[in-house]
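If you are new to this repository, start here. Below is one unmodified record pulled from the training split, so you can see the exact layout before writing a loader.
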Amino acid sequence: MENKFLSFYDLDITGGFWYDRQKLNSETTIKAVYDRFKETGRFEALKQNYKEGQPNRPHIFYDSDVAKWIESAAYIYKKNKDESLLVLCEEMIDDIEKTRRQDGYFNSYFQQFEPEAIFTRRTDHELYCAGHLMEAAVAYYECTGRDRFLKIMCDYADLIEKVFLKDKSAAFTTPGHEEIELALVRLYKATNEKRYLELSKFFIDERGTKEEDEYDFAKHNYAQSDRPLRELSLAEGHSVRACYLYAGMADIALEYGDKELFAACERIFNNITEKRMYVTGGIGSAYQGESFTIDYDLPNNTAYTESCAAIALCFFANRMLKMDVNSKYSDVIERIIYNGFLSSTSLDGKAFFYKNPLDIDPKMKDRLTSTKDREHFPETERLEVFGCSCCPPNITRFVASIGDYIYSEKGDTLFVHQYISSKADKVEMESNFPFGGKVTIKTNNYNNVAVRIPSWVDKYTIKVNNVAADYEISKGYAYIKLPENALIELDFNMEVCLVESNPEVFINQGKVALTKGPVVYCLENIDNEAAVHKISLKEELNAEIEYDESLKAEAIYTDAYKKEFTSLYRKVNSDYKKIKAKFIPYYCFANRGTQEMCVWVNFIN
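And here is the target side for that same chain:
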């Protein structure tokens, strides 16, 4: 029996942390992204009327940016019925319908500039853009009931099936940038047309079975094409492409009951989360190729940790959760959404990080004082738009649909995966997360509930109708038999604590990170009397928590220590000056100008 997730379509987020962020997303962020995309010609590209010499020459990935914006707008419309968003979407759909080819093909770059190269270059994002357009069309249909865009994309999917599966007339077999694999499964579920599911399976089955084109700089594992997917054990290559693919693999494993494919997904997931993931949930440690590297290679100041990669890992983890209710998947989602994903967006909702580093020392950007060379370091302040601006509309669609991650049902059992205040037909939850551990859940018409016990918690209580509950723990979930109309009260003790990393992560040896509940904290110079890289902690923190109104978040004040140096080297001594350090949630960093920041802090035994 399938573990079926409740769609955000069928529930409302009713208050608290994510209510505020969804409000910001729908009132500010979606419009800010639209304005920047309009200025940079992304929407105009759909009209296919570009003349050489004009500004904003369309790029091979512009259609995917537009598609994610439409998908975001559809989700927001579903909840607030903002008709102005539909007017904009309809204009874009008009342009797509008018300019697509008679055979169903649509790509605003290739049709205008290289029609002779259609389906000849694996590296140029055609199927990636097609996939995002399909996802947008499904979302638009499900949220508005309008099927014009869906029919247009079904025509496109039919053409892709003909070219790649039936005629095999394309110059490549599988997409360079994965995404269409998940989109086709969504298209299948929206239309009940199994051919789309089978086409997705074809792309999964064929990947890695033959030599295919790669970028000049890349090896075959860059695009996950070095071996058949059922043989994979390591997360390799471009981290966003990889996790989109792994999510697609999980979809096919679920739909076909493919145990071998599921086993490969599990091996990959374990490799990511046990050896290749930052404490913030970020993935992709190298600027070169935006990629995974080797086990335990997690540099902090050059961490790539793309915002889209965090989102993609959530996609992958949630699909694994559908097949195996195990808190190792939902814990990772929680880690991401409150840290490595949330840091992507400024507190005012208008600017974004493409990369999310864990350490910033601004002067290092110019350390090569005698040459014109510059090393690559992540941005120190968020930008409103990028040349490759895939992250902003990915963020808006993810925030708008965060309700997809809260509940699932299997038979007469309700599973509670994320503690987000929300209401659906048979369940209502109030939660203080991420800063408080009290949760109340009211249910009816469920005989059982399974609630996740977060990996960070040591002490907790569970009550049902004000009485201590009997429960059994399985794979990180507490299973409870329920009376009719049950009131479940959870209290997870959120202590301020220090965490350390595996010593194989040599860059973090002798360092600790401060956390409270699911939130990772960091230091910024603006809050501290000592430069953050000179601050040390001891195990005795004497932590005090205060609400910071300017950040709309809890700050943590601890005892800390610094050393004063007057020479470059000296004999070791224990002459520390005691100071107070102020930690803020990692997701709040870089909202007050460029400055030093660090997550990992020196530790004194």
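Two things worth knowing about this chain: The first strand starts at residue 4 and ends at 5. The CA atoms of residues 527 and 582 lie 6 Å apart.
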